[in-house]
Amino acid sequence: MLGILFWLAVKAVALAMSLVLSAAVLVLTLRKMLGYFTYRIGPNRVGPWGILQPIADVVKMLFKEDIIPRDADNIVFRLAPIIALFTALAIWAVIPWGPSDKLAAYMSDPNAGILVFLALGSLSVYGVALGGWASQSKYSLLGSMRATAQMISYELAMGMSLVGLLLMAGTTRLSGIVAAQGTGHYYFWITQVVGFVVFFISTLAEASWTPFDLPEAEAELVGGYNTEYAGMRFGMFFFTELIHAVTMAAMISLLYLGGWNTVSFLSFIPGTLAFIMKIMFVLFIYLWLRATLPRFRYDRLMNFGWKVMLPLAALNLVGTAVYVALWAPKA
Amino acid sequence: MFEDLSALAKGLGTTLKVLFRKKVTVQYPDVPKIRAARFHGRHELRTYENGLEMCVGCELCQVACPAAAITVLAAENDPANPHSPGERYGYKYQVDLLRCIFCGMCEEACPTDCLHLTGDFELANFTRESLVLQKDQLVNKTPSGFKVPGNVYPPFQGRKVVKS
To answer: A49 and chain B: CB distance < 8 Å anywhere?
Structure first.
């Protein structure tokens, strides 16, 4: 019993560390790539090719004065970034990161994994909403209002698009969904292409990634929900956002791109490595979109979420249900 | 709908193209910036190829300067040991870089092509005094390619200047 607990603790710490590390790598890649996308070369001063830039950033944030506004709600203001970071990390408790034939490559793999993912994804709104509310600043409040409305709207489309996939897979266990895609060419992004598109766009909105970065629209809201935050409290929000992006990319790779399975002639690649490569590929597309697209207008964002995404997801669900009921091979 | 998607694809294509293009960033302090050929920077007083100063102390640059940044005091040349070919030379020459607007009128006014604006633009300093350039800071001792012209009055005798 103790041995299992110890093993779990080691895995949890390693996972949390690698997530924070991945966020650091992502922020460097983000700045480098956004540079390259706009005829620039990005940061290159700290260390060779600027690879120590995230460390310099963190050191800077740690040494910044920790300002709490006079009128802010003291407890909630301090709690909000912690909630945000906690929910972002906690999602990984149910995300498996490799084939588990030899070693259990997951924290836990419950048979309702995808529901836990959706639930914690919804909880992550709390960090943002409380942070904006506790700041006692209208920009922060507007930012968090936007974030709340946006995440709730797109969560619907996201959940709806997943139902079709669940019908095809016949399980809500994440490793089961990966197994259902097999090693062949029938990953769900082909067989569930409408759902894939809807889910992909929803993940952008969930991670408040461009073009859905309204919660932190710098040009309109100063900084959005994190306007009043300074130092490492801001840093926690910042990391939360990046970890969310990694999480969403991981979910896309798990659910639609076959997770750690590869096509047969690439099967020499270790499962976890293949999974990481898929995450990196999805993140590249994220960066590409970020470099290309302008921000949505708020009413269009809502229109798009409710009038396009949700009906599309529902249609996909109906179509999949009909297919599964009539033609699909019985398991 | 279709138009929107094609516009989206076009935008993504554009950014992807830019990703692989040559970058425009200049690594400035590490790699010197390439200035335009006629860039107006710090002033310099040139010397003839035999080492004589080209400045004859005519003060035309002082008159031409719209910002009153230049002060010239001329003195008579000692014929036995001249500073410049000609009757007079610039005894005192000051350029106040804090006043200078780098318009280049002085350069145009100079009858002997002596005064000339270099490409040197890294002029920041900590004191006001250090930004009023004196003659010893302005004279470029390395001889330029210019030869002493044949029509100088009084006629140039071909003596070498004694380095002081």
So the answer is: no
To probe the interface with A, which of B4, B5, B10, B19 has the most A CB atoms within 10 Å?
B19
Rounded Cα distance between B121 and B33, Å, is 10
Per-residue model confidence (pLDDT) at position A297: 83
Contact assignment for A40 to B25 by CB distance below 8 Å: yes
User: Which span out of A145-149, A167-171, A279-283, B20-24 was modeled with the highest average pLDDT?
Assistant: A279-283
Q: What are phi and psi of B71, to 5 degrees?
A: -125, 125
On whether the CB atoms of residues A173 and A180 are closer than 8 A, the answer is no
Contacts of A108 (CB under 8 A, 6+ apart): A93, A94
Q: How far is the first Cα of chain A from the last one, in angstroms, to the nearest whole number?
A: 37
Q: Is the CB of B18 less than 8 angstroms away from the CB of A39? A: yes
CB contact under 8 A, B18 and A37: yes
pTM exceeds 0.90, yes or no: no
The interface residues of chain A toward chain B in range 256-295, judged by CB-CB distance below 8 A, are: 288-289, 291-293
Cβ within 8 Å, pair B18-A293? no
- Give the 3-state secondary structure of residue B17: helix
Bond before B32 cis per omega within 30 degrees: no
The answer to whether the complex's ipTM is over 0.90 is: no
Residue A155 has pLDDT above 60, yes or no: yes
